[in-house]
Amino acid sequence: MRIVLLFAITLGINILFSCKQATPNDDLKKNKDNKSALGKPTSKIEVNLKEILSKKNDSDALVVSIDYDQYFKKPKKYKGFYLNTIIDSITKVNNFDTSNCVIIFECVDGYKPLMNFSKLYRSSTPYIVYRDLSQNAINKWDETIKSKFEPYYLVWDKVSKEDNSYAWPYGLIGFQIISINDSYRYIYPYTDPSLAGGFTLFRDNCLKCHSINKIGGSIGPELNIPKNIMEYWTEKDIVNFIKDPASYRYNSRMPAITNVSDKEFTQILKYLNYMKKNKNFSDIP
What we know:
This protein has about 280 residues and is of the alpha+beta class. It is built from seven helices and twelve strands. Helices cover about 20% and strands about 25% of the residues. Strands 3, 4, 5, 6, 7, 8, 9 and 10 form an eight-stranded antiparallel sheet that branches. Strands 1-2 form a two-stranded antiparallel sheet. A two-stranded antiparallel sheet has the order 11-12. The longest helix has 16 residues, at about 260-275. The protein is globular.
């Protein structure tokens, strides 16, 4: 279930900021050139799930049993497809080198969780599901959640309830597979390696809902262009707001966040301050 931290860009706008995920740190190694089926180098593949899955019949789908669903907080059964089968066919056709890559999931509401690509091939299996088998034959989802769960939902088997390192995005419409170098090009603190920890915390906790230098999610506002949030909010207010949104904003959508330490907040703020001082928009697409 998505838990988001909330900043504020103006007095009337909430900035969403998601909870910490235990994603491993990435080494920024020089990536090998990927080449498409046409022989042209490519460092990104974009996938529209409807274009692929709308061609499949219900009889083609698997029955997916999940021991513990992070959204529903209980075991669930769905109809869906093995994500890695979809990915393997696409990367093979495009002769795409997936080493040193990340996968960015894209949702209807602008939510964009990011994961290391290699995590897809570990002990837990990812599935793209489209029907909750606890519903009747007519309804794919409970009517109360249908509008936000369609068209697809990403689920994982063999994930414990304590493990928050896996993304469970609903309203899923597609994904990108992109080289780490390209995905971090405009947001990594290359000139100050001491801020790598703050970048990682920001990437794992914020980037799925916010963009910085136009990279990231769109649920919450951009945090650096044209002005960095730290140019008009104090560090104290930013942290206090996150810890107790209701004390700043009536009817805030955000719960109080207690799982990010003060030390981690400090590292994130140092990273944001670095981005404020290193604005160079000339080559940002």
